[in-house]
């Protein structure tokens, strides 16, 4: 270990002239599998310490990026790790899967000046993976024991971040999740080639060893109502994510082998985890040797096309109704998918699905972009007479997600929702319309990002702590601290 540290220290800071011209292209790997110590130091050394940390401002967690880059460049890796984990409950996960081109890296001043961003996410991943390898990641310890208990519904990044912060403050925390594994979309949405599942599992194990209770295969609404959880706990945090897949309205959409994106990704992730997955083994949800058509232009669509390529599909096409510049997904993901052989059919819409029992083809309309709509994006208009047909043995619908009907599911008609079905919370307290019930993550924001879910989990822990203190103070003025 000492030898390795010496290697860090002896590496000189690289001047711009010594940097490879193609640093950006070659520094990006799917999960930076080849990211080595020298590269981390080299990249960290590229940070100009510009004094206007736009990277930090555009990181939802306000990570102290310039300082941990400086420490990495100086070979002070353990200190870099301490600083990095101080503001982020899952830094090695964010380093892998944040769309950095839209967040920290997209706002790096070196990137802005045309010299290619410092690969912040890759360095973050490197620092924190090294911390796990070298045993620097400490067990979760409660600072004191409190008698109050908190119930958390949902073991995704929002629920897990809140659980960790609340447990550290000493609360007894129970996390309920309807899945058989904790992690939410980190486990069952995001593919393994972007986020290895053992990386999530070791975080969950640390939380369980720190005294957080996980009740898995427990669906709130089926196994207990929200009211029952309120009676069990002093406060409840709802972090259930958004899972209702948006539908396509087109003739033939009911044919076999036209599947929702999450069914497809869950089957692939379960297979990777070694579970028995009959729908995959039957070929239903396996893209091998198939002509695959994915409909949608977001990150979920990108995950589907890239998973299908890895399953040895015969061909993979992606239909998106706008052009490349108006795509919601990360440009880096699109570039990766293109490099891997995905055929993007920009400005297209599925007009109908062809086949007898299973899908055999997709009838497609060509689109032109008209005047901007209310959101400022140009609205798609069909070009008459320009239709064409694409062969398909598997069509995957990846049009995004809406919230489930939580007031109904939770038997809680008083739970107030927005017109989109997301939970309404008071921004300053994160409390829903029901006293002592807080909410955050995708169920409040709508489909968003892991890093925002972590931010919400951390903020929720702080407001829940305040709420409990205030309640205790109201009962016995000297009891709260
Ligand atoms: C395919 C896909 C790929 C993505 N890729 C990225 C990416 O690369 N980078 C990125 O930053 N973001 C990505 N996202 C978005 C990101 O995963 C989410 O924004 C994030 O996971 C939201 O966290 P959450 O904790 O709010 O909800 P979730 O992660 O959805 O977790 C919610 C949990 O609540 C549980 N739950 C729901 N209802 C109940 C109930 N009634 N009772 C008990 N448990 C319940 C669910 O089982 C789940 O475990 C992706 C999303 C998808 C769908
Ligand atoms: S958490 Fe995400 S946005 Fe923040 S520094 Fe890490 S990769 Fe960048």
Give an overview in words.
It is a single chain. By secondary structure, this protein is of the alpha/beta class. Helix content is 37%, strand content 15%. The chain is built from 20 helices and 16 strands. The strands form four sheets. It has a five-stranded parallel β-sheet with strand order 3-2-1-4-16, with helices on both faces. Strands 6-14-7-8-9 form a five-stranded parallel β-sheet. Strands 10, 11, 12 and 13 form a four-stranded antiparallel β-sheet that branches. Strand 7, helix 16 (299-310) and strand 8 form a beta-alpha-beta unit. It is globular. The chain starts with a helix and ends in a 6-residue tail after the last helix. Residues 1-29 have low confidence and may be disordered. Bound molecules: flavin-adenine dinucleotide and iron/sulfur cluster.
List the helices and strands and how they pair.
Layout: H1 2-10, H2 23-27, H3 37-45, H4 54-57, H5 65-73, H6 77-86, H7 91-97, H8 109-112, H9 120-133, E1 149-153, H10 157-168, E2 172-176, H11 185-188, H12 197-209, E3 213-215, H13 226-232, E4 235-238, E5 244-245, E6 258-260, H14 261-272, H15 278-281, E7 291-295, H16 299-310, E8 315-320, H17 331-339, E9 343-346, E10 348-354, E11 361-372, E12 378-382, E13 388-391, E14 394-397, E15 401-402, H18 406-409, E16 437-439, H19 442-445, H20 450-475
Parallel strand pairs: 1-2, 1-4, 2-3, 4-16, 6-14, 7-8, 7-14, 8-9
Antiparallel strand pairs: 5-15, 10-11, 11-12, 11-13
Helix pairs in contact: 3-5, 3-9, 5-6, 6-9, 7-9, 10-20, 14-16, 16-17
The structure holds flavin-adenine dinucleotide and iron/sulfur cluster.
């Amino acid at each position: 270990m000492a030898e390795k540290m010496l290697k860090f220290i002896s590496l000189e800071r690289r001047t711009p002239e010594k940097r490879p011209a193609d640093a950006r292209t070659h520094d990006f790997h799917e999960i930076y599998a080849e990211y080595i110590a020298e590269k981390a130091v080299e990249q960290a050394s590229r940070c100009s310490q510009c004094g206007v940390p736009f990277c930090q401002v555009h990181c939802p967690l306000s990570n102290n990026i310039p300082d941990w880059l400086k420490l990495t460049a100086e070979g002070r890796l353990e200190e870099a790790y301490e600083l990095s984990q101080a503001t982020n409950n899952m830094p090695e996960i964010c380093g892998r899967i944040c769309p950095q081109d839209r967040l920290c890296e997209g706002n790096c001043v070196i990137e802005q000046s045309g010299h290619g961003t410092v690969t912040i996410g890759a360095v973050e991943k490197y620092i924190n993976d090294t911390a796990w390898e070298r045993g620097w990641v400490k067990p979760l310890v409660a600072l004191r024991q409190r008698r109050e208990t908190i119930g958390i519904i949902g073991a995704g990044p929002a629920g897990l971040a809140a659980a960790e912060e609340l447990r550290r403050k000493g609360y007894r925390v129970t996390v309920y999740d309807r899945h058989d594994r904790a992690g939410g979309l980190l486990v069952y949405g995001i593919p393994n080639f972007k986020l290895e599942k053992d990386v999530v599992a070791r975080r969950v194990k640390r939380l369980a060893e720190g005294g957080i209770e996980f009740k898995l295969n427990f669906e709130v609404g089926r196994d207990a109502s929200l009211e029952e959880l309120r009676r069990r706990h002093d406060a409840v945090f709802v972090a259930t994510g958004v899972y209702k897949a948006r539908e396509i309205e087109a003739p033939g959409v009911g044919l076999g082998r036209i599947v929702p994106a999450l069914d497809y990704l869950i089957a692939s992730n379960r297979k990777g985890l070694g579970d028995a997955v009959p729908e995959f083994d039957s070929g239903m949800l396996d893209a091998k040797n198939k002509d695959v058509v994915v409909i949608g232009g977001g990150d979920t669509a990108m995950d589907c096309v890239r998973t299908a390529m890895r399953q040895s599909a015969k061909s993979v096409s992606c239909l998106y109704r706008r052009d490349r510049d108006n795509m919601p997904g990360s440009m880096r993901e699109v570039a990766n998918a293109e490099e891997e052989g995905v055929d993007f059919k920009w400005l297209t819409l599925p007009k109908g699905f062809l086949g007898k029992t299973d899908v055999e083809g997709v009838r497609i309309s060509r689109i032109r972009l008209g005047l901007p709509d209310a959101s400022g994006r140009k609205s798609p208009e069909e070009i008459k007479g320009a239709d064409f047909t694409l062969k398909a043995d598997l069509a995957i619908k990846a049009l995004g997600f809406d919230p489930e009907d939580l007031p109904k599911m939770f038997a809680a008609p008083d739970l107030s929702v927005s017109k989109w079905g997301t939970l309404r919370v008071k921004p300053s307290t994160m409390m829903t319309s029901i006293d002592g019930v807080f909410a955050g993550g995708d169920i409040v924001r709508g489909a968003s990002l892991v890093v925002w879910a972590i931010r919400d989990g951390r903020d929720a822990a702080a407001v829940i702590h305040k709420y409990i203190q205030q309640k205790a103070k109201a009962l016995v003025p000297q009891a709260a601290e």
